[in-house]
Design goal:
The chain has 146 residues and is α/β, with parallel strands linked by helices. It has one domain (7-145): TIM Barrel (Alpha-Beta Barrel), CATH 3.20.20. 40% of the residues lie in helices and 24% in strands. The protein has helices spanning 23-32, 48-57, 80-87, 102-105, 109-126, 138-145, and strands at 7-12, 35-42, 61-65, 92-101, 130-135. The protein has a five-stranded parallel beta sheet with strand order 1-2-3-4-5. It is globular, with a radius of gyration of 16 Å.
Length: 146
């Protein structure tokens, strides 16, 4: 790729087990391919320390934090305060990944909706973008977002 091309990978999961032990190499390969910035998304608040550490260790790597809708039923419910405490970090660039996933986890609709509303409020208060996951939940997502 030409040196004038600067790509941002706005959604990756550098903390996933597939990359264990090779984060430095993954980031180096991305840079060699023209990726200038990366946003690694924590899908559980329990994963924030690991994702934050990856961002801190690599220039151009940032992070976002939230509770993925497929984890909403099994994870402790995040509070607005929990999310705001993470959001003050200088490399935190978003709230989420949050949202609604009725394809695989329709049985937890109410909990997913509650979690989404908490994430929306944290994004509003922090001024950070909201990172949304939506699958088979368009009507509810539109209703909650409007």
């Amino acid at each position: 790729m030409g040196s004038d091309i600067r790509i941002t990978d706005s959604h990756c999961h550098l903390d996933f087990p597939d990359f264990a032990g090779e984060i430095d190499a993954v980031v180096a390969r991305a840079r060699a391919a023209g990726v200038h910035r990366m946003v690694s998304i924590a899908t559980r608040l329990a994963n924030v320390p690991q994702v934050r550490a990856i961002a801190e260790a690599h220039e151009g790597v940032f992070f976002a934090a939230g509770t993925h809708p497929m984890s909403a039923a099994t994870e402790p419910m995040a509070t607005v305060e929990d999310l705001l405490a993470v959001a003050v970090h200088p490399k935190c660039v978003g709230i989420g990944e949050t949202g609604l996933d009725y394809h695989y986890t329709a049985e937890s609709k109410a909990r997913q909706q509650e979690s989404l509303r908490i994430h929306i409020e944290a994004a509003r208060q922090s001024g950070l973008p909201l990172i949304i996951h939506a699958r088979d939940a368009d009507a509810d997502m539109a209703r909650i977002l409007t």
